[in-house]
UniProtKB/TrEMBL annotation, chains A, B:
This is S-formylglutathione hydrolase. Belongs to the esterase D family. The lineage of its organism: Bacteria, Pseudomonadati, Pseudomonadota, Alphaproteobacteria, Rhodobacterales. GO terms for molecular function: S-formylglutathione hydrolase activity. Its EC number is 3.1.2.12.
Protein backbone atom coordinates (compact mmCIF):
# COMPACT_ATOMS: atom_id res chain seq x y z
CA UNK A 1 0.00 0.00 0.00
CA UNK A 2 1.30 3.46 -0.92
CA UNK A 3 0.37 6.79 0.57
CA UNK A 4 -0.73 9.24 -2.13
CA UNK A 5 -1.47 12.10 0.26
CA UNK A 6 -2.31 12.86 3.87
CA UNK A 7 -3.92 16.15 4.89
CA UNK A 8 -4.83 17.24 8.36
CA UNK A 9 -8.57 17.82 8.50
CA UNK A 10 -10.89 18.50 11.42
CA UNK A 11 -8.25 17.38 13.89
CA UNK A 12 -7.72 14.06 12.11
CA UNK A 13 -6.10 12.97 8.87
CA UNK A 14 -7.65 12.66 5.41
CA UNK A 15 -5.47 10.14 3.60
CA UNK A 16 -5.46 8.76 0.07
CA UNK A 17 -3.84 5.39 -0.55
CA UNK A 18 -3.28 3.02 -3.47
CA UNK A 19 -2.69 -0.69 -3.42
CA UNK A 20 -2.47 -3.59 -5.84
CA UNK A 21 -5.91 -5.17 -5.78
CA UNK A 22 -6.23 -8.91 -6.33
CA UNK A 23 -10.01 -8.75 -6.74
CA UNK A 24 -9.83 -6.10 -9.48
CA UNK A 25 -6.42 -7.12 -10.87
CA UNK A 26 -5.25 -3.52 -11.00
CA UNK A 27 -4.14 -0.76 -8.66
CA UNK A 28 -7.01 0.67 -6.64
CA UNK A 29 -7.18 3.99 -4.81
CA UNK A 30 -9.26 4.87 -1.75
CA UNK A 31 -9.68 7.76 0.67
CA UNK A 32 -9.69 7.19 4.43
CA UNK A 33 -10.48 9.80 7.05
CA UNK A 34 -9.20 8.95 10.51
CA UNK A 35 -10.49 11.18 13.33
CA UNK A 36 -8.21 12.30 16.15
CA UNK A 37 -9.76 9.62 18.36
CA UNK A 38 -7.98 6.96 16.26
CA UNK A 39 -4.72 7.97 17.95
CA UNK A 40 -6.04 6.35 21.12
CA UNK A 41 -7.34 3.12 19.63
CA UNK A 42 -9.71 1.60 17.08
CA UNK A 43 -12.64 3.74 15.95
CA UNK A 44 -15.90 2.83 14.18
CA UNK A 45 -15.87 2.82 10.37
CA UNK A 46 -18.50 4.31 8.08
CA UNK A 47 -18.33 3.26 4.42
CA UNK A 48 -19.29 5.79 1.76
CA UNK A 49 -19.87 4.26 -1.67
CA UNK A 50 -19.96 6.75 -4.52
CA UNK A 51 -22.05 7.08 -7.64
CA UNK A 52 -21.62 6.97 -11.40
CA UNK A 53 -18.58 8.84 -12.80
CA UNK A 54 -17.13 9.34 -9.30
CA UNK A 55 -13.71 8.27 -8.09
CA UNK A 56 -12.63 7.96 -4.45
CA UNK A 57 -12.27 11.74 -4.48
CA UNK A 58 -15.67 13.30 -5.14
CA UNK A 59 -17.39 12.57 -1.85
CA UNK A 60 -14.12 13.03 0.01
CA UNK A 61 -13.92 16.68 -1.07
CA UNK A 62 -17.58 17.59 -1.61
CA UNK A 63 -19.83 15.72 0.82
CA UNK A 64 -18.64 17.48 3.97
CA UNK A 65 -18.70 14.27 6.00
CA UNK A 66 -15.40 14.73 7.83
CA UNK A 67 -16.78 17.50 10.05
CA UNK A 68 -19.39 15.21 11.54
CA UNK A 69 -17.20 12.11 11.58
CA UNK A 70 -14.55 14.02 13.53
CA UNK A 71 -17.09 15.12 16.09
CA UNK A 72 -18.41 11.58 16.52
CA UNK A 73 -14.98 9.90 16.41
CA UNK A 74 -15.81 7.86 13.31
CA UNK A 75 -13.52 6.91 10.41
CA UNK A 76 -14.76 7.25 6.82
CA UNK A 77 -13.65 5.18 3.85
CA UNK A 78 -14.26 6.34 0.27
CA UNK A 79 -13.56 3.49 -2.18
CA UNK A 80 -13.33 4.05 -5.92
CA UNK A 81 -16.34 3.04 -8.04
CA UNK A 82 -14.58 0.67 -10.45
CA UNK A 83 -11.25 -0.73 -11.58
CA UNK A 84 -9.29 1.69 -13.74
CA UNK A 85 -6.23 1.98 -15.91
CA UNK A 86 -4.76 0.66 -19.10
CA UNK A 87 -5.94 -2.80 -19.98
CA UNK A 88 -9.19 -2.31 -18.05
CA UNK A 89 -12.26 -2.47 -20.27
CA UNK A 90 -14.35 0.65 -20.72
CA UNK A 91 -17.37 1.97 -22.60
CA UNK A 92 -18.29 5.38 -24.01
CA UNK A 93 -21.50 5.32 -21.91
CA UNK A 94 -20.73 6.93 -18.53
CA UNK A 95 -23.05 4.39 -16.88
CA UNK A 96 -20.98 1.37 -17.94
CA UNK A 97 -17.34 0.44 -17.40
CA UNK A 98 -14.85 2.66 -15.58
CA UNK A 99 -16.61 4.80 -12.98
CA UNK A 100 -19.64 2.51 -13.12
CA UNK A 101 -18.79 -0.78 -11.43
CA UNK A 102 -22.26 -1.13 -9.88
CA UNK A 103 -20.75 -3.09 -6.96
CA UNK A 104 -21.09 -6.48 -8.68
CA UNK A 105 -18.68 -9.22 -9.76
CA UNK A 106 -18.83 -9.25 -13.55
CA UNK A 107 -18.98 -12.71 -15.12
CA UNK A 108 -19.08 -11.68 -18.77
CA UNK A 109 -16.53 -10.48 -21.30
CA UNK A 110 -14.89 -8.02 -21.49
CA UNK A 111 -15.69 -7.09 -17.88
CA UNK A 112 -14.98 -10.26 -15.89
CA UNK A 113 -11.18 -9.90 -15.50
CA UNK A 114 -11.33 -6.61 -13.54
CA UNK A 115 -14.87 -5.60 -12.63
CA UNK A 116 -15.18 -7.41 -9.30
CA UNK A 117 -16.25 -4.51 -7.12
CA UNK A 118 -18.45 -6.73 -4.93
CA UNK A 119 -15.47 -8.77 -3.79
CA UNK A 120 -13.33 -5.66 -3.57
CA UNK A 121 -15.66 -3.69 -1.31
CA UNK A 122 -17.00 -6.59 0.78
CA UNK A 123 -13.83 -8.64 1.20
CA UNK A 124 -10.47 -7.35 -0.02
CA UNK A 125 -10.67 -3.73 1.04
CA UNK A 126 -12.13 -4.46 4.50
CA UNK A 127 -9.33 -6.96 5.20
CA UNK A 128 -6.74 -4.43 4.12
CA UNK A 129 -8.30 -1.64 6.20
CA UNK A 130 -8.69 -3.63 9.40
CA UNK A 131 -5.11 -4.87 9.12
CA UNK A 132 -3.53 -1.51 8.41
CA UNK A 133 -5.50 1.06 10.38
CA UNK A 134 -6.94 1.46 13.90
CA UNK A 135 -10.52 0.55 12.95
CA UNK A 136 -13.06 -1.39 15.00
CA UNK A 137 -14.30 -4.17 12.73
CA UNK A 138 -17.27 -4.84 14.99
CA UNK A 139 -18.58 -1.27 14.61
CA UNK A 140 -19.31 -0.55 10.96
CA UNK A 141 -21.99 1.33 9.06
CA UNK A 142 -22.49 1.83 5.35
CA UNK A 143 -23.92 4.59 3.19
CA UNK A 144 -23.62 5.88 -0.36
CA UNK A 145 -25.00 8.08 -3.10
CA UNK A 146 -26.92 7.02 -6.20
CA UNK A 147 -25.13 3.92 -7.60
CA UNK A 148 -23.28 3.96 -4.26
CA UNK A 149 -26.59 4.00 -2.42
CA UNK A 150 -27.49 0.88 -4.38
CA UNK A 151 -24.18 -0.63 -3.32
CA UNK A 152 -24.65 0.32 0.33
CA UNK A 153 -28.16 -1.10 0.56
CA UNK A 154 -27.45 -4.34 -1.28
CA UNK A 155 -24.26 -5.00 0.66
CA UNK A 156 -25.88 -4.14 3.99
CA UNK A 157 -28.69 -6.63 3.37
CA UNK A 158 -26.30 -9.33 2.11
CA UNK A 159 -24.08 -9.45 5.22
CA UNK A 160 -26.37 -9.71 8.24
CA UNK A 161 -24.53 -8.75 11.41
CA UNK A 162 -21.72 -6.89 9.67
CA UNK A 163 -23.21 -3.37 9.67
CA UNK A 164 -24.87 -1.77 12.65
CA UNK A 165 -26.70 0.69 10.40
CA UNK A 166 -27.24 1.49 6.73
CA UNK A 167 -28.30 4.61 4.88
CA UNK A 168 -28.41 6.02 1.38
CA UNK A 169 -28.66 9.29 -0.51
CA UNK A 170 -30.83 9.06 -3.63
CA UNK A 171 -30.00 5.38 -4.18
CA UNK A 172 -30.73 3.40 -7.32
CA UNK A 173 -33.50 1.45 -5.65
CA UNK A 174 -34.69 -1.04 -8.21
CA UNK A 175 -32.02 -1.57 -10.87
CA UNK A 176 -33.60 -4.70 -12.37
CA UNK A 177 -36.40 -2.46 -13.65
CA UNK A 178 -34.37 0.66 -14.49
CA UNK A 179 -32.14 2.03 -17.24
CA UNK A 180 -29.60 2.38 -14.47
CA UNK A 181 -29.41 -1.36 -13.89
CA UNK A 182 -30.75 -3.46 -16.71
CA UNK A 183 -28.16 -2.51 -19.36
CA UNK A 184 -25.32 -2.81 -16.85
CA UNK A 185 -26.46 -6.09 -15.29
CA UNK A 186 -26.89 -7.50 -18.82
CA UNK A 187 -23.34 -6.49 -19.65
CA UNK A 188 -21.71 -7.52 -16.38
CA UNK A 189 -23.83 -10.53 -15.36
CA UNK A 190 -25.46 -11.71 -18.58
CA UNK A 191 -29.07 -11.82 -19.59
CA UNK A 192 -30.22 -14.48 -17.09
CA UNK A 193 -32.11 -12.15 -14.77
CA UNK A 194 -32.08 -14.60 -11.87
CA UNK A 195 -28.44 -13.57 -11.28
CA UNK A 196 -29.52 -9.94 -10.93
CA UNK A 197 -31.79 -10.30 -7.92
CA UNK A 198 -28.93 -10.32 -5.39
CA UNK A 199 -28.11 -6.78 -6.55
CA UNK A 200 -31.51 -5.12 -6.33
CA UNK A 201 -32.30 -3.33 -3.06
CA UNK A 202 -36.03 -3.50 -3.57
CA UNK A 203 -35.98 -7.25 -4.21
CA UNK A 204 -33.64 -7.82 -1.26
CA UNK A 205 -35.89 -5.74 0.96
CA UNK A 206 -38.89 -7.86 -0.01
CA UNK A 207 -36.95 -11.05 0.62
CA UNK A 208 -34.91 -10.41 3.73
CA UNK A 209 -34.60 -6.72 4.73
CA UNK A 210 -31.86 -5.22 6.88
CA UNK A 211 -31.18 -6.22 10.46
CA UNK A 212 -30.63 -2.70 11.80
CA UNK A 213 -31.83 0.87 11.45
CA UNK A 214 -32.10 2.24 7.91
CA UNK A 215 -32.24 5.84 6.65
CA UNK A 216 -32.90 6.90 3.04
CA UNK A 217 -33.03 10.47 1.74
CA UNK A 218 -34.32 11.34 -1.73
CA UNK A 219 -34.80 14.80 -3.28
CA UNK A 220 -38.17 15.50 -4.86
CA UNK A 221 -36.53 17.53 -7.65
CA UNK A 222 -33.99 14.84 -8.52
CA UNK A 223 -33.50 14.80 -12.29
CA UNK A 224 -33.10 11.00 -12.24
CA UNK A 225 -36.20 9.95 -10.31
CA UNK A 226 -37.35 7.67 -13.15
CA UNK A 227 -34.06 5.75 -12.96
CA UNK A 228 -33.76 5.70 -9.16
CA UNK A 229 -37.34 4.49 -8.54
CA UNK A 230 -37.56 5.48 -4.85
CA UNK A 231 -41.25 4.53 -4.76
CA UNK A 232 -40.32 0.86 -5.24
CA UNK A 233 -38.04 0.80 -2.22
CA UNK A 234 -40.36 2.91 -0.07
CA UNK A 235 -43.17 0.49 -0.80
CA UNK A 236 -40.96 -2.53 -0.13
CA UNK A 237 -39.69 -1.11 3.18
CA UNK A 238 -43.21 -0.48 4.40
CA UNK A 239 -44.51 -3.82 3.15
CA UNK A 240 -41.61 -5.69 4.75
CA UNK A 241 -42.17 -3.80 8.01
CA UNK A 242 -38.51 -2.77 7.82
CA UNK A 243 -37.52 -0.48 10.68
CA UNK A 244 -36.28 2.71 9.10
CA UNK A 245 -36.95 6.15 7.74
CA UNK A 246 -37.54 7.14 4.13
CA UNK A 247 -37.48 10.89 3.60
CA UNK A 248 -38.52 12.74 0.46
CA UNK A 249 -36.72 16.09 0.65
CA UNK A 250 -38.68 18.87 -1.01
CA UNK A 251 -36.87 20.72 -3.81
CA UNK A 252 -33.54 18.88 -3.63
CA UNK A 253 -31.89 17.43 -6.73
CA UNK A 254 -29.27 14.71 -7.30
CA UNK A 255 -26.16 16.81 -6.67
CA UNK A 256 -23.64 16.87 -3.87
CA UNK A 257 -25.44 19.97 -2.59
CA UNK A 258 -28.21 17.56 -1.66
CA UNK A 259 -25.79 15.02 -0.20
CA UNK A 260 -23.88 17.58 1.86
CA UNK A 261 -27.12 19.11 3.15
CA UNK A 262 -28.16 15.87 4.81
CA UNK A 263 -24.74 14.46 5.64
CA UNK A 264 -24.91 15.66 9.24
CA UNK A 265 -28.13 13.69 9.72
CA UNK A 266 -26.63 10.53 8.22
CA UNK A 267 -23.44 10.61 10.25
CA UNK A 268 -25.47 11.29 13.41
CA UNK A 269 -27.75 8.41 12.51
CA UNK A 270 -24.82 6.00 12.20
CA UNK A 271 -23.10 7.40 15.30
CA UNK A 272 -26.27 6.75 17.27
CA UNK A 273 -26.38 3.16 16.01
CA UNK A 274 -22.71 2.69 16.90
CA UNK A 275 -23.47 3.48 20.53
CA UNK A 276 -25.93 0.57 20.73
CA UNK B 1 -27.39 38.10 -16.12
CA UNK B 2 -28.01 34.43 -16.91
CA UNK B 3 -28.67 31.56 -14.52
CA UNK B 4 -26.22 28.69 -15.09
CA UNK B 5 -27.62 26.49 -12.33
CA UNK B 6 -29.59 26.60 -9.11
CA UNK B 7 -29.45 23.75 -6.58
CA UNK B 8 -31.31 23.52 -3.35
CA UNK B 9 -28.78 23.32 -0.51
CA UNK B 10 -29.22 23.49 3.25
CA UNK B 11 -32.74 24.87 2.87
CA UNK B 12 -31.57 27.68 0.57
CA UNK B 13 -30.38 27.91 -3.02
CA UNK B 14 -26.84 27.60 -4.38
CA UNK B 15 -26.91 29.48 -7.67
CA UNK B 16 -24.34 30.06 -10.39
CA UNK B 17 -24.77 33.06 -12.67
CA UNK B 18 -22.92 34.68 -15.58
CA UNK B 19 -23.04 38.27 -16.74
CA UNK B 20 -21.27 40.55 -19.18
CA UNK B 21 -18.70 42.41 -17.07
CA UNK B 22 -17.76 45.94 -18.04
CA UNK B 23 -14.79 46.02 -15.66
CA UNK B 24 -13.26 42.84 -17.10
CA UNK B 25 -14.62 43.24 -20.64
CA UNK B 26 -15.71 39.60 -20.76
CA UNK B 27 -18.38 37.32 -19.34
CA UNK B 28 -17.85 36.61 -15.66
CA UNK B 29 -19.30 33.79 -13.56
CA UNK B 30 -20.01 33.79 -9.83
CA UNK B 31 -21.66 31.52 -7.27
CA UNK B 32 -24.20 32.89 -4.81
CA UNK B 33 -25.70 30.98 -1.90
CA UNK B 34 -28.94 32.44 -0.58
CA UNK B 35 -30.16 30.98 2.71
CA UNK B 36 -33.87 30.31 3.30
CA UNK B 37 -34.06 33.53 5.32
CA UNK B 38 -33.62 35.50 2.07
CA UNK B 39 -37.21 34.61 1.18
CA UNK B 40 -38.34 36.98 3.92
CA UNK B 41 -36.08 39.93 3.14
CA UNK B 42 -32.49 41.06 2.68
CA UNK B 43 -29.80 38.99 4.42
CA UNK B 44 -26.16 39.77 5.28
CA UNK B 45 -23.53 38.98 2.63
CA UNK B 46 -20.20 37.25 3.21
CA UNK B 47 -17.68 37.48 0.36
CA UNK B 48 -15.38 34.51 -0.25
CA UNK B 49 -12.45 35.32 -2.54
CA UNK B 50 -10.62 32.30 -3.90
CA UNK B 51 -6.99 31.47 -4.52
CA UNK B 52 -4.67 30.72 -7.42
CA UNK B 53 -6.06 28.36 -10.10
CA UNK B 54 -9.56 28.49 -8.60
CA UNK B 55 -12.74 29.49 -10.37
CA UNK B 56 -16.02 30.49 -8.68
CA UNK B 57 -16.60 26.78 -8.15
CA UNK B 58 -13.83 25.42 -5.90
CA UNK B 59 -14.83 26.98 -2.61
CA UNK B 60 -18.50 26.64 -3.50
CA UNK B 61 -18.20 22.85 -3.63
CA UNK B 62 -15.30 22.16 -1.24
CA UNK B 63 -15.23 24.70 1.60
CA UNK B 64 -18.43 23.55 3.30
CA UNK B 65 -19.51 27.12 4.04
CA UNK B 66 -23.18 26.79 3.12
CA UNK B 67 -23.98 24.70 6.18
CA UNK B 68 -22.94 27.47 8.53
CA UNK B 69 -24.25 30.30 6.38
CA UNK B 70 -27.68 28.62 6.28
CA UNK B 71 -27.73 28.34 10.04
CA UNK B 72 -26.78 31.99 10.49
CA UNK B 73 -28.99 33.30 7.67
CA UNK B 74 -26.07 34.69 5.69
CA UNK B 75 -25.60 34.79 1.91
CA UNK B 76 -22.26 33.80 0.37
CA UNK B 77 -20.79 35.07 -2.87
CA UNK B 78 -17.98 33.22 -4.66
CA UNK B 79 -16.51 35.41 -7.43
CA UNK B 80 -14.14 34.04 -10.04
CA UNK B 81 -10.43 34.82 -9.61
CA UNK B 82 -9.79 36.45 -13.00
CA UNK B 83 -11.26 37.29 -16.38
CA UNK B 84 -11.39 34.31 -18.73
CA UNK B 85 -12.10 33.30 -22.29
CA UNK B 86 -10.80 33.75 -25.79
CA UNK B 87 -9.04 37.03 -26.31
CA UNK B 88 -8.11 37.25 -22.62
CA UNK B 89 -4.35 37.20 -22.04
CA UNK B 90 -2.82 34.24 -20.21
CA UNK B 91 0.50 32.81 -19.13
CA UNK B 92 1.85 29.26 -18.72
CA UNK B 93 2.68 30.06 -15.06
CA UNK B 94 -0.36 29.15 -12.93
CA UNK B 95 0.37 32.18 -10.74
CA UNK B 96 -0.11 34.70 -13.54
CA UNK B 97 -3.00 35.43 -15.90
CA UNK B 98 -6.23 33.43 -15.91
CA UNK B 99 -6.97 32.07 -12.45
CA UNK B 100 -4.50 34.54 -10.93
CA UNK B 101 -6.00 38.03 -11.08
CA UNK B 102 -4.55 38.99 -7.66
CA UNK B 103 -7.47 41.42 -7.13
CA UNK B 104 -5.75 44.37 -8.80
CA UNK B 105 -6.46 46.59 -11.81
CA UNK B 106 -3.71 45.82 -14.31
CA UNK B 107 -2.21 48.85 -16.01
CA UNK B 108 0.32 47.06 -18.22
CA UNK B 109 0.12 45.14 -21.49
CA UNK B 110 -1.12 42.55 -22.22
CA UNK B 111 -3.15 42.50 -18.99
CA UNK B 112 -4.75 45.94 -18.80
CA UNK B 113 -7.77 45.35 -21.10
CA UNK B 114 -9.32 42.59 -18.96
CA UNK B 115 -7.50 42.10 -15.65
CA UNK B 116 -9.43 44.61 -13.55
CA UNK B 117 -10.44 42.36 -10.67
CA UNK B 118 -10.21 45.17 -8.11
CA UNK B 119 -12.95 47.15 -9.85
CA UNK B 120 -14.90 43.98 -10.51
CA UNK B 121 -14.99 42.78 -6.92
CA UNK B 122 -15.21 46.15 -5.17
CA UNK B 123 -17.58 47.96 -7.53
CA UNK B 124 -19.25 46.16 -10.42
CA UNK B 125 -20.17 42.87 -8.77
CA UNK B 126 -21.47 44.47 -5.54
CA UNK B 127 -23.73 46.80 -7.54
CA UNK B 128 -25.06 43.88 -9.55
CA UNK B 129 -25.64 41.74 -6.44
CA UNK B 130 -27.41 44.40 -4.40
CA UNK B 131 -29.65 45.22 -7.37
CA UNK B 132 -30.59 41.67 -8.23
CA UNK B 133 -30.78 39.75 -4.94
CA UNK B 134 -32.25 40.26 -1.45
CA UNK B 135 -28.95 41.26 0.20
CA UNK B 136 -28.38 43.81 2.97
CA UNK B 137 -25.66 46.13 1.65
CA UNK B 138 -25.06 47.55 5.14
CA UNK B 139 -24.18 44.10 6.55
CA UNK B 140 -21.18 42.67 4.70
CA UNK B 141 -18.13 40.68 5.67
CA UNK B 142 -15.24 39.43 3.58
CA UNK B 143 -12.96 36.41 3.68
CA UNK B 144 -10.83 34.38 1.31
CA UNK B 145 -8.14 31.75 0.87
CA UNK B 146 -4.51 32.28 -0.15
CA UNK B 147 -4.55 34.83 -3.03
CA UNK B 148 -8.18 35.36 -2.03
CA UNK B 149 -7.12 36.01 1.57
CA UNK B 150 -4.82 38.68 0.18
CA UNK B 151 -7.79 40.10 -1.73
CA UNK B 152 -10.07 40.00 1.31
CA UNK B 153 -7.59 41.73 3.61
CA UNK B 154 -6.52 44.44 1.15
CA UNK B 155 -10.11 45.20 0.12
CA UNK B 156 -11.33 45.24 3.72
CA UNK B 157 -8.67 47.78 4.71
CA UNK B 158 -9.25 49.91 1.60
CA UNK B 159 -12.97 50.51 2.17
CA UNK B 160 -13.43 51.61 5.78
CA UNK B 161 -17.03 51.22 6.88
CA UNK B 162 -18.00 48.79 4.15
CA UNK B 163 -17.26 45.49 5.92
CA UNK B 164 -18.28 44.73 9.48
CA UNK B 165 -15.64 42.00 9.72
CA UNK B 166 -12.77 40.48 7.74
CA UNK B 167 -11.02 37.13 7.87
CA UNK B 168 -8.64 35.02 5.85
CA UNK B 169 -7.44 31.44 5.44
CA UNK B 170 -3.70 31.18 4.75
CA UNK B 171 -3.57 34.57 3.02
CA UNK B 172 -0.70 35.89 0.94
CA UNK B 173 0.29 38.40 3.60
CA UNK B 174 3.14 40.37 2.13
CA UNK B 175 3.14 40.07 -1.66
CA UNK B 176 5.59 42.92 -2.27
CA UNK B 177 8.27 40.72 -0.73
CA UNK B 178 7.13 37.33 -2.04
CA UNK B 179 7.33 35.21 -5.17
CA UNK B 180 3.55 35.25 -4.95
CA UNK B 181 3.36 38.98 -5.51
CA UNK B 182 6.48 40.53 -6.96
CA UNK B 183 6.37 38.82 -10.38
CA UNK B 184 2.62 39.39 -10.67
CA UNK B 185 2.65 43.02 -9.53
CA UNK B 186 5.53 43.68 -11.95
CA UNK B 187 3.48 42.21 -14.78
CA UNK B 188 0.15 43.78 -13.88
CA UNK B 189 1.22 47.12 -12.36
CA UNK B 190 4.73 47.71 -13.69
CA UNK B 191 8.01 47.93 -11.89
CA UNK B 192 7.33 51.14 -9.96
CA UNK B 193 6.86 49.55 -6.56
CA UNK B 194 5.03 52.54 -5.11
CA UNK B 195 1.96 51.34 -7.01
CA UNK B 196 2.15 47.98 -5.24
CA UNK B 197 1.70 49.18 -1.67
CA UNK B 198 -2.09 49.49 -1.94
CA UNK B 199 -2.18 45.74 -2.54
CA UNK B 200 -0.07 44.45 0.34
CA UNK B 201 -1.95 43.48 3.51
CA UNK B 202 1.10 43.88 5.73
CA UNK B 203 1.84 47.38 4.43
CA UNK B 204 -1.83 48.39 4.70
CA UNK B 205 -1.94 47.02 8.23
CA UNK B 206 1.05 49.14 9.21
CA UNK B 207 -0.48 52.22 7.59
CA UNK B 208 -4.15 52.06 8.45
CA UNK B 209 -5.40 48.68 9.72
CA UNK B 210 -8.98 47.43 9.62
CA UNK B 211 -11.86 49.13 11.42
CA UNK B 212 -13.50 45.96 12.69
CA UNK B 213 -12.71 42.51 14.04
CA UNK B 214 -10.20 40.43 12.10
CA UNK B 215 -9.53 36.67 12.10
CA UNK B 216 -6.66 34.92 10.31
CA UNK B 217 -5.98 31.17 10.26
CA UNK B 218 -2.74 29.69 8.98
CA UNK B 219 -1.62 26.05 8.98
CA UNK B 220 1.81 25.31 10.41
CA UNK B 221 2.41 22.59 7.77
CA UNK B 222 1.43 24.79 4.84
CA UNK B 223 3.70 23.97 1.90
CA UNK B 224 3.73 27.65 0.84
CA UNK B 225 4.69 29.37 4.09
CA UNK B 226 7.69 31.08 2.45
CA UNK B 227 5.39 32.67 -0.10
CA UNK B 228 2.54 33.53 2.27
CA UNK B 229 4.74 35.16 4.92
CA UNK B 230 2.27 35.00 7.82
CA UNK B 231 4.93 36.27 10.23
CA UNK B 232 4.92 39.64 8.48
CA UNK B 233 1.20 40.16 8.95
CA UNK B 234 1.18 38.77 12.49
CA UNK B 235 3.91 41.23 13.43
CA UNK B 236 2.13 44.10 11.69
CA UNK B 237 -1.19 43.32 13.39
CA UNK B 238 0.41 43.28 16.81
CA UNK B 239 2.51 46.38 16.15
CA UNK B 240 -0.49 48.29 14.84
CA UNK B 241 -2.54 47.19 17.86
CA UNK B 242 -5.11 45.82 15.43
CA UNK B 243 -8.03 44.15 17.18
CA UNK B 244 -8.07 40.60 15.92
CA UNK B 245 -6.97 37.01 16.18
CA UNK B 246 -4.13 35.33 14.32
CA UNK B 247 -4.14 31.56 14.72
CA UNK B 248 -1.37 29.16 13.70
CA UNK B 249 -3.10 25.79 13.29
CA UNK B 250 -0.78 22.90 14.11
CA UNK B 251 -0.30 20.36 11.32
CA UNK B 252 -2.64 21.87 8.75
CA UNK B 253 -1.53 22.47 5.15
CA UNK B 254 -2.77 24.77 2.35
CA UNK B 255 -5.60 22.58 1.08
CA UNK B 256 -9.36 22.90 1.27
CA UNK B 257 -9.22 20.32 4.06
CA UNK B 258 -7.68 23.12 6.11
CA UNK B 259 -10.21 25.69 4.88
CA UNK B 260 -13.22 23.48 5.53
CA UNK B 261 -11.95 22.55 8.98
CA UNK B 262 -12.07 26.15 10.16
CA UNK B 263 -14.97 27.40 8.04
CA UNK B 264 -17.44 27.02 10.90
CA UNK B 265 -15.31 29.33 13.04
CA UNK B 266 -15.05 31.94 10.29
CA UNK B 267 -18.76 32.03 9.47
CA UNK B 268 -19.56 32.22 13.20
CA UNK B 269 -17.05 35.03 13.56
CA UNK B 270 -18.71 37.06 10.79
CA UNK B 271 -22.21 36.21 12.02
CA UNK B 272 -21.27 37.55 15.44
CA UNK B 273 -19.98 40.78 13.88
CA UNK B 274 -23.16 41.12 11.83
CA UNK B 275 -25.23 41.20 15.03
CA UNK B 276 -23.36 44.29 16.24
Amino acid sequence: MKTVSENRAFGGVQGVYTHASIACACDMTFGLFLPAQAEDGPVPLLWFLSGLTCTHENAMVKAGAQRWAAEAGIALVFPDTSPRGEGVANDPDFALGQGAGFYVNATRKPWAPHFRMWDYVTDELPRLLFNAFPLAEEVQGITGHSMGGHGALTIAMSFPGRFRSASAFAPICHPTSSDWGRPQFSAYLGTDESSWAAHDATLLMRRRGFDGPLLVDQGTSDQFLDKLRPEALAEAMASARQGGTFRMQKGYDHSYFFVSTFMEDHVSFHAQAFLG
